[in-house]
TrEMBL record:
Lineage: Bacteria, Pseudomonadati, Pseudomonadota, Alphaproteobacteria, Sphingomonadales
Domain Aminotransferase class I/classII large residue range list: 27-387
Cofactor dependence: pyridoxal 5'-phosphate
Name this polypeptide is given: Aspartate/tyrosine/aromatic aminotransferase
GO cellular component, one term: cytosol
Alphabetic keyword roster: Aminotransferase, Coiled coil, Pyridoxal phosphate, Transferase
Coiled-coil region(s): 301-328
Record keyword Coiled coil present: yes
Protein's GO biological process: L-phenylalanine biosynthetic process from chorismate via phenylpyruvate
Organism: Alteraurantiacibacter aquimixticola
Subunit annotation: Homodimer.
Length: 392
C-alpha cells in the first residue's frame, strides 16, 4: 500500500545546506538557512538561556506530563511583551497555550479558524513557504495578494483590495514584523489603516509574530499586533521564541486567542487543547521552561534584552552597509536599509543565483532570499562584488 505514495521533493533549503557544507572554498558565504549569525558566523546559545538552563537542571524536580496547554508560566510571562499595557490578558479576553515552535502555533491558528468556519485565508505573497503548505494540509483555500512593490515597500493597494473583496468566512494571515522572506514590513501608519480595514470588513486576522525584537525593538515590533488587537473583537496570534531566544531546535512557540469576551475565549482555548491533543498531545518542555525562567528573573531578562539588542544592531549595521553600496551591478540594495529583520529578496534570476553559488561560493535560496545575518563586515564587499559580477 505504501508504494502508492509519491516521492516528495526534498526541502530546498536543507539541500542547500548540504551543498554549502560540501563546498571546500574558505570564503564561501551562506545566506540560505534562516538562523541568526554573529559577526564571526556562529549561532551560539544565548547566555541568558545558558543561565536559565543551568537553573532548570538544578531545580526541575519532575518531568511528569503537563497538559496540552504546556507551560502556562511561559505563556503568561510572554504576554506583557506581546500585548503590553497594564492588563495584557484584557480581562480574560486573551488566553494562550504553548506550542511546538511558531510552526505549531500557525498550524493551530489555521486549524482553529477552519473549525470556526473559515474557508479561505488571504495571504500576501511571497510568504514563508510553510504557510502555504500548512494551509494546503489543513484544507483551507489560500487567496494570494501581492505583498511587496518593486520599490521595496508594502503593496497596500493589494491588501486593501483583498480585504475589501473578502467575505464573512475569510481570514487574513499577516506577518507581525520582519516579514519573511521580503523584509518589507508595514509602517505604523499602514498598520493603523489595516486595523481600521479589519474592523470595517470583519475579516479574521491571524498574526504570525516570529521575529519580535529583531526589527526595531520588542515594543516597536509589537505595534501592528497591538493595533489589531485593540481594533477588532477576534484575533489569532502565532508566536515564535525560536529566533528572539535563539532556541530553534528546542521548538518554542505560543498561540494566543482574543475573542469578544472571556467565555468565548475559554471556549476557543478548549478547542485549542483538543486540536493540540490530536496533533502533538503536548509541546516539548525544555526550551519554554528556560524562557519562563529567563523572563521571570530580572537579571536574566536584562541579559536577554542586551543580547537581543546586539543582534538587532548587527542586522541593522549589515543592512546599512548593504544599502550604502552603489556597486552591486544591476541589483539595487538601497531598499534593504529601510526594510526589517533577517531577510531580504534580491531580484535575481535562477541563472544569476546559480552563478553566485558556482562561481562565487555565495549560497542563497532559489527565490533570491538572503539571510542578511549571514553577512559580516568582512564579507559584504565580496558579496557585493559577486552581485555586480553576475548582474552587471
Ligand atoms: N513564521 C514565520 C514567518 C517564520 O519565518 C517561521 C520560521 N522560519 C515560523 C513562523 C516558525 O518558526 P519556528 O521555527 O518557531 O517553528
Amino acid at each position: 500500500m505504501l508504494d502508492r505514495l509519491e516521492q516528495q521533493p526534498a526541502d530546498a533549503l536543507l539541500a542547500l545546506i548540504k551543498l554549502h557544507d560540501a563546498d571546500p572554498r574558505e570564503d564561501k558565504i551562506d545566506l540560505g538557512v534562516g538562523v541568526y549569525r554573529t559577526a564571526t558566523g556562529g549561532t551560539p546559545v544565548f547566555a541568558c538561556i545558558k543561565a536559565a538552563e543551568a537553573k532548570l537542571v538544578a531545580e526541575q524536580d519532575t518531568k511528569a506530563y503537563l497538559g496540552p496547554e504546556g507551560d502556562m508560566g511561559f505563556v503568561h510571562a510572554l504576554m506583557p511583551h506581546i500585548f503590553g499595557g497594564s492588563d495584557p490578558a484584557l480581562g480574560g479576553r486573551i488566553d494562550g497555550m504553548q506550542t511546538p515552535g511558531g510552526t505549531g502555533a500557525v498550524r493551530l491558528a489555521v486549524a482553529m479558524a477552519r473549525k470556526a468556519g473559515v474557508t479561505r485565508i488571504l495571504m500576501g505573497t511571497p510568504s514563508w513557504p510553510n504557510h502555504a503548505q500548512i494551509l494546503a494540509d489543513t484544507g483551507v483555500e489560500m487567496v494570494g495578494f501581492n505583498h511587496a512593490k518593486a520599490d521595496g515597500t508594502a503593496d497596500m493597494d493589494a491588501l486593501r483590495d483583498a480585504l475589501r473583496g473578502a467575505g464573512s468566512t475569510d481570514a487574513v494571515l499577516l506577518h507581525g514584523c520582519c516579514h519573511n522572506p521580503t523584509g518589507v514590513d508595514y509602517t505604523n501608519d499602514q498598520w493603523d489603516e489595516i486595523a481600521s480595514l479589519l474592523a470595517e470588513t470583519g475579516v479574521l486576522p491571524i498574526v504570525d509574530l516570529a521575529y519580535q525584537g529583531l526589527g526595531d525593538g520588542m515594543e516597536e515590533d509589537a505595534y501592528g499586533t497591538r493595533k489589531v488587537v485593540a481594533a477588532v473583537p477576534e484575533v489569532l496570534i502565532a508566536y515564535s521564541c525560536d529566533k528572539n531566544f535563539g532556541l530553534y531546535r528546542d521548538r518554542v512557540g505560543a498561540f494566543y486567542v482574543l475573542t469578544a469576551n472571556a467565555e468565548d475565549t475559554a471556549k476557543a482555548m478548549s478547542n485549542g487543547y483538543a486540536l493540540a491533543r490530536a496533533n502533538w498531545s503536548m509541546p516539548p518542555d525544555h526550551g519554554a521552561s528556560a524562557v519562563r525562567l529567563a523572563l521571570t528573573d530580572p537579571a536574566m531578562t536584562k541579559q536577554w534584552t542586551d543580547e537581543l539588542d546586539s543582534m538587532r544592531a548587527r542586522i541593522r549595521q549589515v543592512r546599512e552597509k548593504l544599502a550604502a553600496s552603489s556597486n552591486a551591478g544591476a541589483v539595487n540594495l538601497a531598499p534593504l536599509g529601510t526594510q526589517q529583520g533577517m531577510f531580504a529578496i534580491l531580484p535575481l534570476s535562477k541563472e544569476q543565483i546559480l552563478a553566485l553559488r558556482e562561481d562565487h561560493g555565495v549560497y542563497m535560496a532559489g527565490s533570491g532570499r538572503i539571510n542578511v545575518a549571514g553577512l559580516t563586515m568582512g564579507n559584504i564587499d565580496k558579496f557585493v562584488s559577486a552581485l555586480a559580477a553576475v548582474s552587471g
